[in-house]
Design goal:
Helices cover about 30% and strands about 25% of the residues. It is an alpha+beta fold. The radius of gyration is 44 Å and the shape is elongated. The N and C termini lie far apart (about 115 Å).
Length: about 750
């Protein structure tokens, strides 16, 4: 036997291979030309080869050798990362460095991507085949000294230094190379790469014994090979995933790639994760346990239906939750999807963990228990009485108090007891205290309330921490202020370039709307209505309570007066004037902005001398619409706001009477009935009639650019009637309203003024 070191460039003839005592096989086009080549007794001599097979390819039977056959060029990117030694490399001109050979034995393995991933491999000469571990007496490989069968190329050594054993775990390193190559081919597109790498790290953490440094290196190498410009950010994925809680895994990876979990698990099986993969797939397909009701649980399951990923909720009871067969039957019957099975012991462990960490659904279904009824009564009490943001209401009027900072609710137990009595709910005092403590989780609270600068008064209440109040039940006392913010952009779309060019701009404008605190205090004497308000028919006499019918009449009257006053203030309000002085209206605010130059000059239309008439209204409206910026014209919420007088002039003009060239019968021969209380428009702009606006003014604006502010919307609709007979013995009746109101606009540059 010849020492193979004598071949400086490696064995390259059948004589050289036979001299090394190795078994070679004559092949044509890569296929053995002899039978029984795999038999242990198969031998061929130099003379026999010379006589029968002088032009055949030389195939080395891999009895005690390993040939790592590289078919996909991406594989070569990872060889340098993981091979600790590669002294023997051969190939051909069109596919150099495609075979790596060592002495030793492994298990034969072809690394081929699953069929559903074929689209990723269309550009490669060998399609989905990445590489192959060839080994044992049942396999051979065409070696140097041969003319390649698929092309007239000589198979030649590119590196040779004796066929020695690999200095490490060759199987693990080759499988890392194969998995890296596959994940590089499947690498996610921009925007999903971080999640993709996180999912890889999660899968390797769950499925392998790799340490975090090993995972870090693995993912970083893939990112670099995939030309990820943020590869440095992926370098510590193994470290971060080890420290995190719930981890992405194979299902998430499959979702990103757009394949089945089964397909991606086949790839990860290359590094020996098959058993663990099966368990993870099953676990990931079963979502968290959510408690829906007594002995009722919701679980979201993920499975496949005709190749499509389906996520569906199932509702089960406790026994089904802990019984694998019953659970899988429920998944199939309710969701009609299949999820992988796992060991019974693993299922019980996983479901126990999910049950122990279960959450309660916000739609939790409770029984109609005493506890629930009591809670409903309490919520009804809060809704009826309202909660107030100032504690003085609790002290003086026994009204509930809500601390907006601490999110706590305080209430007077006596007042709540009176409410229950009115509802004919009989609860002994001692039982009421117990239910308040046990059901409402309330605690008795002894505090103080500031009544003057340096004076405090004790206030005993019951306090509920972390109370979730309905904002409709909360009355906020004190001052009100809101910042109105409007965004405007410029030069938003620009020609594309490689660099970031911050030529676009966003302008943020802010205006303050600060509602004014207002009130109505009205006192009436019953004597004034004894004869006037059907006293005889209603059986009304002095000293009696105010008749409900009259009370309703006065409430409606006061509310209507407030509404009319508010309408005038919205437009003509002026805090410095004698009337309509509740708050500054739009006319004053807009005029100030116009004077300051905030409204473009082209959008400030001077009112016609002598005022608006039916003869000039159409001309003046045209001037206003001409002043509307093109960027605002046609907006859905854009209106032309005018007073009642201007609207009447416009209807008159539209009606005809021979004016404005319309003829006596007007538009569509409808005469003076043209409008008939329908909608008005001018030049495609909708008209909004405002009774509170001055006669010779008009404004064009988006509805979304005009704001009306109040503390609570229903505060302007609430009137309290207080009969003083029980308080001071008089026959007076007081009517009380307290509310806040104000107006403001957002962007002055989006307004058109006619004044």
């Amino acid at each position: 036997m010849v020492d193979e070191k004598t071949y400086n460039s490696g064995p390259s003839t059948y004589e050289h291979w036979l001299d090394l005592g190795l078994t070679i096989i004559p092949c044509l086009k890569g296929v053995s030309d002899v039978k029984a080549w795999s038999s242990p007794d198969f031998k061929i001599t130099k003379e026999e080869w010379k006589q029968k097979y002088p032009n055949h390819e030389i195939a080395l039977r891999l009895d005690d050798h390993v040939d790592f056959d590289v078919d996909n060029p991406l594989v070569k990117r990872f060889i340098k990362n993981y091979l600790k030694s590669s002294p023997n490399i051969f190939g051909r001109d069109s596919n150099p460095e495609s075979h790596y050979v060592w002495k030793g034995k492994l298990t034969f393995k072809q690394f081929i991507l699953p069929a559903e991933l074929n689209d990723y491999c269309k550009i490669f000469p060998h399609g989905s085949t990445l590489c192959e571990i060839r080994t044992d007496a049942k396999h051979y490989t065409i070696v140097p000294g041969s003319m390649h069968s698929k092309a007239p190329e000589i198979v030649k050594w590119e590196k040779y230094s004796a066929l020695t054993e690999y200095p490490g775990n060759l199987n693990n390193d080759l499988r890392k190379i194969a998995l890296s190559s596959a994940l590089c081919i499947l690498y996610a597109s921009q925007g999903s790469r971080d999640a993709y790498c996180t999912a890889i790290a999660g899968a390797l953490t769950k499925q392998t014994e790799w340490n975090e440094e090993e995972i870090n290196e693995f993912i970083y190498n893939i990112a670099v090979a995939a030309n990820d410009n943020e590869s440095d950010k992926r370098r510590l994925k193994g470290t971060t995933i080890k420290k995190s809680g719930r981890k992405f895994g194979l299902p998430k990876l499959a979702e990103i790639i757009g394949c089945s979990t089964k397909a991606i698990s086949e790839i990860f099986n290359w590094v020996g994760t098959q058993q663990a993969v099966s368990e993870e797939i099953a676990q990931e397909c079963i979502g968290d346990v959510i408690e829906y009701g007594q002995d009722r649980y919701i679980i979201n399951v993920t499975g496949k239906l005709e190749g499509v990923t389906i996520k569906k909720d199932i509702i089960i009871d406790g026994p089904t939750l802990m019984n694998q067969k019953a659970f899988y039957d429920a998944v199939m019957s309710q969701a009609s999807v299949w999820i992988p099975k796992m060991k019974v012991s693993d299922f019980e462990t996983i479901m126990m963990q999910k049950f122990e960490t279960r959450t309660k659904s916000i739609h939790y279904v409770k029984e109609a228990s005493k506890e629930l009824v009591f809670i409903k009564y309490f919520k009804h009490y809060i809704k009826q009485e309202n909660a107030y943001s100032e504690k003085i209401n609790l002290l003086e009027y026994k009204r509930p108090f809500f601390d907006m900072d601490k999110k706590s609710l305080e209430f007077n137990l006596d007042a709540f007891e009176d409410f229950l009595t009115d509802k004919r709910v009989k609860i002994a005092r001692v039982d009421l205290v117990l239910q308040v403590q046990r059901i409402l989780k309330a605690k008795k609270n002894r505090g103080k309330v500031k009544i003057k600068d340096d004076q405090y008064k004790s206030c005993v209440s019951w306090k509920i921490d972390d109370y979730e109040i309905d904002m409709e039940d909360l009355i906020i006392d004190g001052e009100y202020k809101e910042v109105i913010k409007k965004l405007a952009t410029s030069s938003l779309v620009q020609p594309a370039s490689c660099d970031f060019d911050p030529t676009s701009a966003i302008t943020l404008t802010e205006r303050i709307i600060e509602p004014t605190e207002l009130q109505v205090n009205l006192q009436l004497c019953k004597y004034d209505f004894v004869n006037d308000w059907e006293s005889q028919s209603m059986g009304y006499g002095l000293g009696q309570s105010l008749p409900p019918k009259f009370s309703d009449f006065m409430i409606a009257h006061v509310a209507a007066e407030v509404a009319q006053n508010t309408e005038f203030n919205i437009w003509q309000g002026d805090t410095t004037a004698a009337t309509n002085n509740s708050f500054d209206g739009f006319q004053k605010l807009i005029a100030a902005s116009a004077a300051a130059g905030d409204i473009p000059a082209a959008q400030q239309v001077a009112a016609v001398g002598g005022g608006l008439t039916a003869l000039n209204i159409i001309t003046e409206l045209a001037r206003v619409t001409d002043a509307i910026p093109s960027s605002l014209y046609g907006k859905e919420d854009f209106f032309l706001y005018m007073g009642t007088a201007a609207a009447k002039f416009y209807v008159t003009a539209l009606g005809g009477f021979g004016a404005n060239g319309l003829g006596a019968n007007g538009v569509n021969n409808m005469g003076s009935q043209w409008w008939n209380n329908g909608s008005l428009t001018v030049n495609g702009v909708k008209i909004f009639v405002c009774p509170g606006m001055a006669d010779n003014k008009m404004y064009a604006a988006q509805r979304s650019n005009l704001y009306f502010g109040t503390g609570l919307l229903n505060s302007t609709q609430e009137v309290k009637v207080l009969d003083m007979a029980d308080l001071d013995g008089s026959n007076n009746v007081r009517m009380i309203m307290r509310f806040t109101s104000s107006v403001q606009f957002g962007v002055a540059a989006d307004l058109v003024e006619y004044a």
